[in-house]
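Re: that backbone. Tokens:
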């Protein structure tokens, strides 16, 4: 379908009203089937949505103030997207299962959103790792941009694509004291890609292009790349801005697509934060690579662009319709003097001394084939159901060397922990230039083809069952996910 660009105004997801919560009096968020208009020339489209909204409502919470959330599944018993029952978790299980993962949160295992902690409508059936109906989020990390999304084993790609994703912001006093753009000058951008059928309904492929006759139907695809870019639930929207500085919190919530974000006027901008919060110092950049699930926090200065329209672009796809993401129209009058600044020092990041490292793991990202001859990406050559091999001790420090011997990039996400990137090396072992985002705390890192990326992290504050996986959702659903068990120390 053809869509006119930049005709729909960028919506801002509403914020859930803040209040004190307890286990017996939590926030209640329901997953429902509803209809959502992605573009003014489209009819309303069937979606799945948290509290009926696409994206879901935004949580704004304070550091060290825990909250409780009860996630309710009120969805139909049948999925409206094609389910491949040959992949892990999707056979001999209910067709519609959900579980919510707060991406980037150091939550206890019962509240982490384990892929096998799924539940059906009204908790009628639950998965083997299901523990509780009400999740507790400690919010003990620094101020940052998290996001929540579905994580049900074998159907994450479908549930997230159907609409189950939303923003979660943690605030703290340190960040509040900085002179960064605030209030209406701080704008969230949840970036996804979608395709639509001629009747306006969401399109998701039921099998790969050029399928062999031996493939099951439906059959998982190796990756999904939509024909349109959607920001905050609108196809190619625009935002009217004043000629001043704005802060944008960008989440790549696409299933598989990576973005090299840049501005159409070649203007530089400042990277001030990554997955785990503010950098120590801002970095002036021309463009930024953001893989699936990664977040960037940037400041753009429109002060000298009165009357102009600037396009946020994906450098990887310039010349294609999907090379454009959204438009900033510098048409609003300046409401008052812009006193915001990008300070030279933003925060302090605790760097773990290498002397504390207890174990170094070398883990490969490999491609093989499944029994139907389909490409199958694996972590260290192991499938989801193979015995757990990553079993760090609670409070221990490890370095993981992630070696990508496939021909594509993989955004690798670890649950529970943030980490720091130590270095990148090419296939010949030569040190590579770090990416700007490598200087911040991360929970997801893109490992490009032929690269080895070394990361360091401390496994705390909880022991128990977690996972690590590629965040290209089609890869994750087709076995590029492994259990991660944090072990308690044995009592002497």
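Recovered sequence:
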């Amino acid at each position: 379908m053809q869509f006119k660009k930049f005709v729909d105004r960028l919506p801002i997801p509403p914020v859930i009203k803040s209040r004190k919560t307890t286990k017996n009096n939590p926030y209640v968020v329901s997953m429902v089937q509803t209809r959502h208009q992605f573009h003014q020339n489209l009819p309303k489209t069937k979606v799945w949505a948290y509290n009926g909204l696409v994206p879901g409502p935004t949580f704004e919470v304070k550091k060290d103030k825990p909250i409780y959330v009860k996630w309710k599944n009120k969805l139909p018993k049948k999925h409206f997207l094609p389910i491949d029952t040959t992949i892990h978790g999707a056979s001999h299980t209910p067709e519609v299962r959900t579980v919510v993962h707060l991406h980037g949160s150091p939550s206890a295992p019962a509240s982490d959103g384990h892929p096998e902690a799924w539940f059906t409508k009204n908790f009628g059936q639950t998965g083997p790792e299901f523990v509780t109906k009400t999740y507790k989020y400690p919010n003990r990390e620094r101020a940052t941009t998290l996001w929540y999304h579905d994580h049900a084993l074998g159907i994450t790609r479908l549930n997230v694509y159907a609409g189950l994703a939303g923003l979660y912001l943690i605030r703290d006093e340190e960040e509040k004291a900085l002179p960064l753009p605030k209030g209406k000058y701080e704008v969230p951008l949840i970036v996804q890609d979608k395709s639509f059928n001629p009747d306006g309904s969401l399109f998701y492929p039921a099998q790969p292009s050029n399928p062999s006759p031996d493939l099951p139907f439906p059959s998982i695809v190796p990756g999904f790349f939509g024909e349109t870019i959607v920001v905050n639930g609108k196809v190619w929207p625009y935002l009217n801005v004043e000629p001043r500085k704005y802060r944008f919190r960008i989440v790549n919530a696409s299933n598989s697509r990576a973005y090299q974000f840049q501005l159409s006027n070649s203007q530089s901008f400042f990277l001030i934060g990554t997955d785990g919060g503010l950098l120590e110092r801002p970095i002036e950049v021309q463009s930024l690579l953001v893989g699936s699930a990664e977040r960037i926090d940037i400041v753009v200065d429109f002060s000298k662009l009165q009357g102009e329209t600037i396009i946020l672009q994906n450098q990887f796809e310039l010349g294609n319709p999907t090379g454009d993401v959204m438009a900033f129209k510098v048409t609003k009058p300046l409401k008052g003097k812009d006193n915001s600044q990008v300070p030279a020092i933003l925060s302090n990041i605790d760097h773990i001394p290498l002397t504390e490292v207890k174990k170094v793991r070398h883990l490969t990202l490999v491609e093989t084939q499944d029994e139907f001859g389909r490409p199958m990406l694996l972590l260290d050559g192991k499938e989801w159901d193979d015995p757990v091999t990553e079993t760090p001790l609670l409070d221990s420090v490890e370095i993981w060397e992630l070696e990508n011997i496939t021909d594509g990039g993989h955004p690798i996400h670890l649950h529970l922990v943030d980490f720091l990137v130590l270095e990148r090396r090419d296939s010949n072992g030569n040190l590579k230039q770090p990416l700007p985002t490598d200087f911040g705390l991360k929970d997801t890192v893109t490992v490009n083809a032929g690269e080895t990326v070394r990361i360091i992290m401390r496994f705390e504050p909880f022991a128990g069952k977690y996972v690590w996986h590629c965040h290209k959702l089609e890869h994750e659903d087709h076995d590029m996910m492994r259990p991660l068990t944090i072990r308690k120390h044995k009592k002497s």
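The helical segments are 156-162, 173-176, 473-477. The radius of gyration is 22 Å.
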